Amino acid sequence: MYNLVPLILISISLLIIIVIVVRKFSFLASLDVDSIPGEKEARFKESVAGKRIKRSLMKWNSWAYNNLGGFLKGAGSFLVTSYDKLFQIKESYDQQLKEGQEDKDKKISRLFNDIGDLDPEDDFEEVEKKLIEIVGLDSKNIDAFQKLGDLYFDNKKFQEAKETYGHILKLVGDDDVVKQAEVYYDMAMAGKENKEDQEALENMKKVFSLTPNNPKYLDIMFEVSIINKDEETASKAYNKLTEVNPENKKLEEFKERLENLSQSS
After folding, report:
1. Going by C-beta distance under 8 Å and a sequence separation of 6 or more, which residues neighbour residue 17?
2. Domain span at residue 87?
3. Does residue 112 lie in a domain region?
4. What is the CATH number of the domain that holds 176?
5. At CB < 8 A and 24+ separation, what contacts does 131-138 make?
6. Where a domain ends, among 100, 128, 143?
């Protein structure tokens, strides 16, 4: 029975170390490092993981030495050595991830450069292929999705354009109202060109709610309101346009069209 005591103590000690390591790596996995620039992310993770795990192991080794006796000293050394090997593997994996990210960034940059040398109309399929390849490498690349939506729009593929613009809205942060307004405007224009006038008007109303003082947006909002015979929205766009851009040469024309709409309703 006496010979089993050291074995039992070592087993318990191993279990404690495993729990410590798992908990610390779980902590690392839950860290929100989205706001940390890519250049610092690897060093940040390494620093947090290394310091917290090694600190925990050092505390445990001190306790084991003082309380469990010398026969655990060898076991503690073995565990630290095992941890070092584990951490070396992790460092190697992190380095591979970093190199992979660098290679991916270079490839994306090269694809954008290739697209710049192509004609969106004559080389439509090739440009589309390269843009889809970019978003395959980076599913949150707003610039690539924007170019893809514009490519569809310019080639009169308005439904595809709307769907692509709609996806951008899922990627844009709630605080970026300017970009949201731009996307809703793009969707409205695609709807207008596709003769989906009511949908275009609804999107322009969203634009107005986000950026009510942009003359370009007010101009289009007035146009789609007239098309939809929406006198209230047309009047709102006209009044706002006279306020923010009184020098607009279209105001007289807009006033006449608004009066005609009022008389016909």
Report:
1. 57, 60, 79, 83
2. 4-24+48-100
3. no
4. 1.25.40.10
5. 134/108, 137/104, 137/107, 137/108, 138/104, 138/108
6. 100
In a domain, 222, yes or no: yes
Report the candidate in 98, 75, 79 with the shortest Cα–Cα distance to residue 87: 79
Which residue shows structure tokens 């709609």?
A: 166
Do 96 and 179 lie in one domain? The reply is no
Backbone angles phi, psi at 143, to 5 degrees: -60, -40
Count of the separate structural domains present in the chain: 2
For 69-98, b/e burial (b = at least 16 CB within 10 A) is eeebeebbeebbeebeeebeebeeebeeee
The alpha carbon torsion through 109, 110, 116, 122 (nearest 10 deg) reads -130
pLDDT at 143: 96
Look at the alpha carbons of 13, 72, 52, 96 in this order and tell me if their dihedral is positive or negative: negative
Residue pLDDT, tens place only, 171-222: 998 889 999 999 999 999 999 999 999 999 999 999 999 999 999 999 999 9
Record the pTM: 0.63
Which of the pair, 249 or 35, is modelled with greater confidence?
Answer: 249
Inside any domain, residue 254: yes
> Does residue 157 have a pLDDT over 90?
yes
**What pLDDT was estimated at residue 163?**
94
Q: Where are the alpha helices (DSSP H) in the chain?
A: 4-30, 38-67, 73-116, 124-137, 142-154, 158-171, 177-193, 197-210, 215-227, 231-244, 251-264
Residues near 149 by Cβ (< 8 Å), separated by ≥ 6?
161, 164, 165, 168, 186
Residue 226, token pair as written in the block: 């007239």
pLDDT at position 173, please? Answer: 85
Is 198 within the bounds of a domain? yes
